[in-house]
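Can't attach files on this board, so I'm pasting raw text. These are the components:
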Amino acid sequence: MGKLRTMIYGIYPRSDSLRVAISRWERGKETTENLRNAISVERSEILERFRKSAEIYTDPCVNWHDIFRPIAGVLDGISPGRLERYTETNTFFRKPVIEKLPEYDGKRLKQDLPENLPAPYFRIEPGSSLLLPAPYSLYRASEDTSGVGEGRFAGAVMDAYAEIAEETGARKIILREVFPYVSGLPDYAAYLNGRFEVSLVTKGRVGKTGASHSGNRFESVIMQDQDIGFAEEAGKVPGIPVIDASNTLLESSADARIRAEGIMNERGLKELIITTSDHLDFLPRVIADRKLAILGEAGAVL
Amino acid sequence: MTGDLITQEIGSFRKPEYLSTKFRKGGKEVHELIRRATDETLGLFRKTGLNNLGVGGEMFRWEMYEHLAEHLSGIKFHGFVRSFDNRYFRKGSVVSQVSRISPFHSDELQYVLENTDRKEQVKVPITGAYTMTDWSFNERYPGRYDLAMDFSDAIHSEIVELKEIWRRSGRDGPLQVQIDEPAATTHPAEMDMLRDTVERSIEGIQGCEFSIHVCYSTDYRLLYKALADTGLHGYNLEFANRDTLSPGLSPDSRPAYQEVSDFADALPDRFLGLGVTDVHIDHVESPELIRDRIEYASKFLDPGRIRLNPDCGLRTRSRDTGLKKLENMTRARWLFTG
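---
Top answer:
Structure tokens for the assembled complex are below.
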């Protein structure tokens, strides 16, 4: 019998009390320091839940309005633009505008950024992973007014990611690919492998070219929309979603576990990661809490 | 149906704090506050010179999804879900068959008709069936289509009742009904479903002017193609959000309004409600900038087929900012018409 590992990543739904505190802050009725404290308390509480249910986890990112805005604010050369609809969940994000080849600006990492909630935006607990939007998705979500192009952009962003990871003390990085790839996998792993353990959570088809590079396999690859075989090729540990982040209907932890074990047996896997199909941010908080607990039960971490 | 550069609100306007802080408590006191806020907002709209007063900024409704859902059976609320930034709505879960259990907007329309002059234009926005489907968690129906059709039936019943209130009021002309479908083009593969929901929602209802409101779409052409043969008379759409803030009539200054040519080509006999002010920024566009937007759009479409509106409901801005945006919109109309 192999090992079933659990992963929770991305933006977690805010509690009603934090939501109200932010609303008061936006109307000038709450100080920035008070809100920073409220964010810190909420973050600690959620991290405690994460640790109970998941072996691999990121910061809950409760001070992120969307997955692109903090990184767009930290990198020099990108700014938040108009509201854009993310059609899958019918939520919105500020469309980043690429004005020039992005550069990491160390000063901004701990600053409160305009169009964002109070910093810090990238925090690491011992053992946790640093969440970053994969460069392909960041580029695809953006408006490139500079004409730098996807390739140069991705390279510059990966360099910046390495610096952010160094500065925050991260050893493990989870890249979140929001959009499916049109072609093959950009060779992200080549940039960061050896220095960090890089996992990829993606909707897209992983191209074999990048994935087959010797020594450049990801630590893990979680595929959402296709055969797990690709995840096996591209990552040391493959993963699958067993929790639906787009519906309030609750899964059975037993069913999730049986499904995962079935895949492991069928493919002879020693390890398999189980996780959610997306950030749980798109669910009511009470449902997210229950789904997180179910994930933990399925992985028998509880 | 004509455009004639009629100025209109899309629907929602920020509630005064005396109402927003108490709205959810309900009861007689809140009902009085709703009426007071509606009176005040109608008054503000009149001051701006707005031609169509809508329903006074939707003071009777907390939010476009939740308001309808609360008048339907089959929907359970688990809590708030983010729409964007720190804006949240109570997204419902469909747990049993959806059907209309009480009127959505009768009291609102009745009140507005009693408190506006017979010659003043009003327009009732109703959240559309497709958006209700897309914005619900579906725990019950095997497919989205059947759920969308049940929402459509509920909306049809509502429009029939609103039409009866309108008839009893003795007002001239058609009742203006705006079907709000912000989710309309988010799933291109479902455009036939969208068309079927619109057709089912308005089927057989005479004496209404039907428009649809869509915003933040990635491709309005999908909409024009899918709905061309429905009974819709007009399309109230967002454009300003994707335009620049620089005045002028060059294509670089007015990128958003180049898309008006698609509308002109696709729907030669419908009116276009042109979004000329962005509801997601506090910057108040000048009358001159808005005039340029109208002028640029009129290169493609006869002004007789254009109405003027904000991109979307102004509830996201403060009342003061919303008011200034509406004022500048009406000033821009005067500048344009000379």
